[in-house]
Amino acid sequence: MNNQEKIETLKKDIKYRRVTIIIQMIFGLICIRMLQHGYDTMIAVIAAFEITLCLSDFNRIRRNSKELKKLQ
After folding, report:
1. Residue 46 has pLDDT above 80, yes or no
2. For residue 68, what are the CA distances in angstroms to 20, 35, 40, 48, 71?
3. Where do transmembrane segments lie in this chain (predicted)?
């Protein structure tokens, strides 16, 4: 894999993870809202898991962005 292919792959991964973070945050906020309205506490576990996934994806975006800067 040459540098141009790596750059394109990293750009696609960053874009994909940004969209994923948005979806996960929306779902997490919906779960928190449901918890406020008296739903089961299992919803809180799901919301916490979604927020954890968001942080993981955010970390991956940071690492990929640094690597992308090195390649450019």
Report:
1. yes
2. 19, 40, 43, 30, 5
3. 16-35, 41-61
